[in-house]
Design a protein that fits this description.
By secondary structure, the protein is an alpha+beta fold. 34% of the residues lie in helices and 27% in strands. It has a seven-stranded mixed beta sheet, sandwiched between helices. The protein has a six-stranded mixed beta sheet with strand order 1-2-3-4-13-5, sandwiched between helices. β3, α2 and β4 form a beta-alpha-beta unit. The longest helix is centred in the middle third of the chain and has 14 residues, at 134-147. The protein is globular and about 60 Å long. The two termini are 29 Å apart.
């Protein structure tokens, strides 16, 4: 199954964020240029790893650093044998959780842990609304910003609007839960680029949202949305990985694991500094 970062939709999104995108033989290469010093070249979970194509782009854009996130151990071995080192701080999640959506809704729900099933049933009365227009996304982003502390990154309104434009119609959905007076208490974004994989892209809740466990019915709505769009797999897009420990991930990892599924590991992020721009 092709990773979303190798999709045309994701290429369009990164292009809107100021990256140069080169698509060669159905592989997305992302280049960030810097005045005078050159560029950084990024390649994320490609179906095929072609170092000749990488070198061609390194030469073209005078890349001083290559960042490659291999899809499997075979690709990782190739990188290691070409003097790439493993970064201590991966860019993409190196471990994730997935649900097989080809099962029936009843079976999928039965695999949820008891606390998740109870929270979903408890939250049946919570209003969940879709946000899709630029004005609605602005409201969504403002609620997100107010829900988290200043140390948490919140995408800009422009970035979220560009994400929606790059993943139009049924390729993304912005959902928010509300309290009894209609205020947003939690939000989530789901994306997909084909009928293969849907992604739990980004999410937030405020104190009231966490207290009411609104994140459970929100996530369940995303799983149902993916299934309705005939996706085969639902990807939770990251859980805690002891190889690259980040204790701040432990809380939401417990939350995600309550939905069952199976775990999958990726090799990590491989980096090589390029002076003078040669592999």
């Amino acid at each position: 199954m092709i990773d979303i970062r190798q999709s045309k939709q994701y290429a369009d999104y990164l292009s809107s964020q100021g990256w140069i995108v080169e698509r060669i033989n159905n592989t997305n290469y992302f280049i960030k240029k810097f005045p005078i010093i050159g560029s950084i070249l990024k390649l994320q979970r490609p179906e095929k790893l072609n170092l000749k194509e990488v070198q061609s782009l390194v030469d073209k854009y005078r890349s001083f650093q290559i960042i490659i996130e291999p899809k499997n151990e075979s690709q990782a071995d190739i990188l290691a044998s070409n003097s790439f080192g493993v970064s201590k701080s991966p860019f993409l999640p190196t471990k994730t959780l997935k649900i097989d959506l080809r099962q029936s809704q009843k079976i999928i729900f039965s695999h949820f842990k008891k606390d998740a099933r109870q929270a979903i049933k408890r939250g049946e009365g919570i209003l969940v609304k879709e946000y899709s227009t630029p004005k609605e996304i602005e409201i969504f982003q403002e609620a997100w910003r107010k829900s988290v502390n200043y140390s948490r990154y919140v995408p800009t309104i422009a970035s979220l609007i560009n994400l929606r434009k790059s993943f139009p119609r049924s390729y993304s959905i912005f959902l928010a839960s509300h309290n009894i007076v209609g205020s947003i208490i939690g939000g989530v974004i789901f994306t997909r680029s084909s009928h293969d994989i849907a992604y739990y892209w980004q999410a937030f809740t405020n104190i009231e949202g966490r207290t009411s466990l609104s994140q459970y019915p929100l996530l369940y709505q995303g799983i149902l949305w993916a299934k309705q769009n005939k996706c085969k797999v639902f990807d939770f897009e990251g859980i805690y990985d002891a190889r690259f420990p980040n204790k701040s991930w432990l809380g939401f990892t417990h939350f995600k694991r309550s939905f069952g599924g199976y775990e999958l590991e990726y090799p990590g992020t491989y980096v090589k500094k390029m002076l003078p721009f040669k592999l």
